Amino acid sequence: MNIKLLINKYGHLAPLFVLIFLCIILSFFNSNFLTITNAGRIANSAAIPLVLSIGVTFIIILGGIDLSIEGVVAIGAVTLSLLSLNANNLNDLGIFAIPIILLIGSLLGCINGLLHVYLKIPSFMVTLGFSFVGIGVATLMIGGITVRVLDKSLRSLALERFLNFSYVAWIGLFAWVIALIFQNKTKFGTYMYAIGGGEDIAKLSGIPINLTKVVLFSIAGFYYSLGGIFSALQLGQGNALIGSGRLFTAITAVVVGGTALSGGVGGVQNTFIGVLIVVVLSNGLILMGIPPFYQQGVQGLIIVVAIALSLNRKTIRIIK
Q1: What is the pTM of this model?
Q2: How many domains does the chain have?
Q3: Could you tell me which of 117, 130, 145, 233 has the fewest CB atoms within 10 Å of its CB?
């Protein structure tokens, strides 16, 4: 059978095949890999990169890029630590702090979108600047210290388990389902693919380009702030550098999952597989006793290879 036809027919399943192959290889090297306990660890580790990757997936499908992840995560985590029971102030909003933080994250994403759309600043530039602003604001909020989350009910979301998975993992899965519905069943999901496939054609078709971008950047901010909440709950604290390294992992998961950096191709279903590939690989390397700095090197190699394979050099264009 023609190899090219096979690739065209089953190429979109390549990340799934990679995940299965990876699981088989890792289980061969370590018998503890395919256990219920380790599955729980993987799910818990995947919660944060999943929600962060969902947000950036929408922006990449648009044909842009969002580098504000670490700043928004920092603000989300620090805000949760300050609004919940802690040793630094008298606040004790408990679970009611969460919607406030999600609203703040959405607002930050909206500002990103507005600056990008109306000031005509490339997305990677405005979001990169916003990342530094977010980290700076988070540092000012807590004076450069670390604030512990003392609320046991909030911490239980990360520490207690249901069917061997933490509640944070279940919430992350639910957030992914919501994103999948948004992507496939709403007009903004349709607009997103149209803009990523060709903004000029989408504009001629009457699609509200600016509104769609602002909405999607706002949704991305929502998911980043959710990642900040998860980070504070898992670590039991908030600090300005809590999001360090999260951007690289999120972008890696999106690209490895098969969402094209040129826009218009992919989706959160691909991202789900991509996150599992990254987290399973990291988990396997830990079980094999590989040092963390080697793990980062492997991740870097993976993203370079994935980008090289995913880019169509005949139609390549600069990211908007």
Answers
A1: 0.90
A2: 1
A3: 145
